[in-house]
Write a structure and sequence with these properties.
- The structure holds 2 protein chains of 2 kinds.
- By secondary structure, chain A is mainly β.
- Chain A is about 0% helix and about 45% strand.
- In chain A, strands 1, 3, 4, 7, 8 and 9 form a 6-stranded mixed sheet that branches.
- By secondary structure, chain B is an all-beta fold.
- Chain B is built from no helices and 11 strands.
- Chain B has strands at about 5, 10, 20-25, 35-40, 45-50, 60, 70-75, 80-85, 90-100, 110-115, 115-120.
- In chain B, the strands form 2 sheets. In chain B, strands 2, 4, 5, 6, 9, 10 and 11 form a 7-stranded mixed sheet that branches.
- The chains are: A mainly beta, B mainly beta.
- The interface of A and B includes residues 51 and 93 of A.
Chain lengths: ~110, ~120
């Protein structure tokens, strides 16, 4: 199964908002509420930022929010900060007890 | 706090085998489903396998089905990944990762990650 489609890169200035899209199909993103997002800084393990489409784990700033429409999920980061610069990956349950990740998006804070 | 520590990585030749281990602490290991996720150098994340909390159910990505086996020893709070018939494309950092729970609805995300262990398959 092919990876979910994410833009290779996005950028924004401090204080601005950016949205990262994650496009799948009616067999994965569109079919289930099990979409999650992960932040990964260089050389570090990923960290969950959003699960179940829009649920934010404790400790994750409320500047991070998730949503889904049809086969596309989105991660929005408002009030961009320098420490938000990282790679972001979406992830979805894909049926048949399998999971699929997106190709990743590099966020640059200008 | 939750700690996941992987070990067993290294450099191996194509066609050989390797077993990874992940020692868990800071939580009741036997009550959580567990994943392996890998990341090739400079590439994105790729899900590898999941095992149910009691070890009864195991599921794999198509890319490793039939070659890799996920298992666990709840008495030792340890997760394993037996990798056979290794290929160059299996070269990656392998992460041990905890699902948020042990129900179907709480299995398809990761709430804690280890630091990873590097497996290099090269002749």
């Amino acid at each position: 199964q092919s990876a979910l489609t994410q833009p290779r890169s996005v950028s924004g200035s401090p204080g601005q908002s950016v949205t990262i899209s994650c496009t799948g199909s009616s067999s994965d993103v569109g079919a289930y509420k099990y979409v999650s997002w992960y932040q990964q800084h260089p050389g570090k393990a990923p960290k969950v930022m959003i699960h179940d489409v829009s649920e934010r784990p404790s400790g994750v700033p409320d500047r991070f929010s998730g949503s889904k429409s049809g086969n596309t999920a989105s991660l929005t980061i408002s009030g961009l900060q320098a420490e938000d610069e990282a790679d972001y990956y979406c992830c979805s349950y894909a049926g048949r007890y399998t999971v699929i990740f997106g190709g990743g998006t590099k966020l640059t804070v200008l | 706090q939750v700690q996941l520590v992987e070990s067993g990585g290294g450099v191996v030749q194509p066609g050989t085998s390797l077993r990874l281990s992940c020692a868990a602490s800071g939580f009741t290991f036997s009550t959580y489903n567990m994943h392996w996720v890998r990341q090739a150098p400079g590439k994105g994340l790729e899900w590898v396998a999941i095992i149910w909390f009691e070890g009864s159910n195991k599921y794999y990505a198509d890319s490793v089905e039939g070659r890799f086996t996920i298992s666990r020893d709840n008495s030792k709070s340890t997760l394993y990944l037996q990798m056979n018939s290794l290929r160059a494309e299996d070269t990656a950092v392998y992460y041990c990762a905890r699902a948020p729970g042990n129900q179907y609805s709480s299995s398809w995300a990761v709430d804690s990650w280890g630091q990873g262990t590097l497996v290099t398959v090269s002749s």
